């Protein structure tokens, strides 16, 4: 009996690695989502000031008495248009000189439109900038409650955090990102975990087939002796 390796085409190893990474992401995301949904049955309502002081362990929160400063905001863009905005959140009345502990990430259409208008005006005359700022004055320093999920684990993008740290926003070293409007989704997380487990099953089956011994055909009977 002979054991032989299955010949792999070029690129099969890299494709296999991508498959492993995808399955791990499904498992990790599913488990984290289920954990978040079971732990956070309802949003924790707390003032922005108390949240900064106590840093509770809840991931789903509603921050009250919060003030957003669009002037300090950063954004990602695609084809020249803002797609996501990161806005510093402070307790109402707090000085702008204090470090930013909370960034709210949002895809709100009105805020995106305001940021796009300010960016376009910034490329033109100073008078246009002043006019655009005046037109969106109600959004430059908004006072309102905000609700969403705090990004952590697989949802936390280290590259995005590093880029934000390099900007002139005066961020605290341990700042958090609050994704506005997001809520725990138990059903979606269970589906992700299920697909991840299916992926593990498929990988194990393929590995078992690759390691299975290959049966060799029986040897031909010996020739009769010559007389």
Question: Any descriptors?
Answer:
disordered N terminus, five-stranded mixed barrel, alpha+beta, 25% strand, 227 residues, 7 strands
Count of distinct structural domains: 2
Q: How many E strands?
A: 7
Rg: 28 Å
Distance N terminus to C terminus?
Answer: 33 Å
Helix-residue proportion: 40-55%
Description of the molecule:
A hairpin with an 8-residue loop joins strand 4 and strand 5 (100-106). This protein folds into 2 domains: 16-40 and 185-210; 43-183, no CATH class. Helix content is 43%, strand content 25%. It contains 7 helices and 7 strands. A 5-stranded mixed barrel has the order 2-4-5-7-6. The model is unreliable at 1-13 (pLDDT under 50). It has helices at 12-39, 48-54, 109-122, 126-135, 137-140, 158-165, 186-211, and strands spanning 44-47, 60-69, 74-78, 81-91, 100-106, 141-150, 171-180. With 227 residues, it is of the alpha+beta class.
Secondary-structure map with pairings?
Blueprint: H1 12-39, E1 44-47, H2 48-54, E2 60-69, E3 74-78, E4 81-91, E5 100-106, H3 109-122, H4 126-135, H5 137-140, E6 141-150, H6 158-165, E7 171-180, H7 186-211
Parallel strand pairs: 1-2, 5-7
Antiparallel strand pairs: 2-4, 2-6, 3-4, 4-5, 6-7
In short:
This protein is α+β, with helices and mostly antiparallel strands.
């Amino acid at each position: 009996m002979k054991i032989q390796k299955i010949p792999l085409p070029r690129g099969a190893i890299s494709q296999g690695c991508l498959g492993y990474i995808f399955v791990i992401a499904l498992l990790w995301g599913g488990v984290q989502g289920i954990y978040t949904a079971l732990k956070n049955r309802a949003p924790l309502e707390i003032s922005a000031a108390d949240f900064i002081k106590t840093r509770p362990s809840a991931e789903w929160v509603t921050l009250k008495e919060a003030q957003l400063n669009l002037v300090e905001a950063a954004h990602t863009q695609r084809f020249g248009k803002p797609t996501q905005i990161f806005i510093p959140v402070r307790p109402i009345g707090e000085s702008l000189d204090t470090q930013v502990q909370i960034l709210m990430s949002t895809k709100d259409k009105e805020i995106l439109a305001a940021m796009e208008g300010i960016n376009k005006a910034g490329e033109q005359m100073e008078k246009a900038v002043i006019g655009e700022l005046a037109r969106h004055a109600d959004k430059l320093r908004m006072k309102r409650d905000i609700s969403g999920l705090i990004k952590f684990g697989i949802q936390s993008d280290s590259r995005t955090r590093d880029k934000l740290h390099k900007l002139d926003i005066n961020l605290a070293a341990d700042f958090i990102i609050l994704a506005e409007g997001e809520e725990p989704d138990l059903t979606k997380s269970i589906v992700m975990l299920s697909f991840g487990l299916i992926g593990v099953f498929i990988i194990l089956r393929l590995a078992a087939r690759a390691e299975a011994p290959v049966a060799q055909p029986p040897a031909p009977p010996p020739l009769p002796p010559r007389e």
